[in-house]
Design a protein that fits this description.
Blueprint: H1 7-12, H2 24-45, H3 59-82, H4 92-115, H5 119-122, H6 127-137, H7 139-151, H8 157-177, H9 185-191, H10 194-211
Helix pairs in contact: 2-3, 2-7, 2-8, 3-4, 3-8, 4-9, 6-8, 6-10, 7-8, 7-10, 8-10
């Protein structure tokens, strides 16, 4: 018995075109390129701090930027995975990395309070510049991740917004941190971590409206 083609189905499928499937490796490459472009932009605009390679940076400099880099990578991977949702898609790495980063401003605050020098953070002449620049340079990563989400099919767009903001703030801050010669505990623990918190809020407010169908 021959089946007669359904004209409604044929009409609905007439304009459909095959799309290129999203692959995890493509998202990772996209974020890596965005981070590389960010570092190049920092070098072109502000210039990287040569003291890093001369051994003049304090240990806390590497601790702070290392934790920011880990958080940026973990949060970016979470966003990339959100573009292709599937069963068992968890983001524990990004959550734990964020919790670990929160310890930095807490530790910095406790040290400064014990030394009676917490007011120095508020009068840090380079603090606001690092905060604004770290947040601004994070826009490159934010744009790349948002584009990825628009191509994909994220289920929880609110969570996608949070993680996009966290990733962009962390990568932007660590990129600009390579140009900042101030390596004190108070400066790094407060002003270099602040872009992550602010970017997370901005990402939650802005990104969902950009990726919602």
């Amino acid at each position: 018995m021959n089946r007669v083609p359904n004209p409604l189905i044929a009409e609905l499928a007439a304009d459909l075109e095959p799309v290129r499937p999203l692959k995890l490796i493509h998202g990772i490459v996209l974020v890596t390129l965005a981070a590389a472009v960010t570092v190049v932009a920092v070098e072109a605009i502000d210039g990287l701090w040569r003291g890093i390679f001369a051994g003049r940076a304090a240990p806390f400099f590497f601790v702070t930027n290392g934790m920011l880099a880990i958080l940026g990578a973990a949060a970016s991977l979470a966003v990339v995975r959100m573009g292709t949702p599937h069963v068992g898609n968890t983001h524990d790495g990004a959550r734990w990395s964020f919790v670990m980063l929160v310890l930095l401003p807490i530790t910095a605050g406790m040290i400064l309070l014990s030394q009676g020098s917490f007011a120095q953070v508020l009068h840090d002449q380079y603090g606001v510049e690092c905060f604004v620049s770290g947040t601004a340079f994070g826009l490159i990563t934010a744009a790349a991740l948002t584009m990825w989400l628009r191509r994909g099919a994220p289920v929880s767009i609110n969570s996608a917004g949070w993680y996009t903001g966290i990733a962009s703030g962390a990568i932007g801050s660590v990129a600009f941190g390579l140009a900042c010669p101030i390596d004190t505990v108070g400066h790094l623990g407060i002003w270099h971590v602040a872009p992550v918190a602010v970017s997370a809020i901005i990402g939650r407010l802005v990104v969902p409206s950009l990726v919602r169908w």
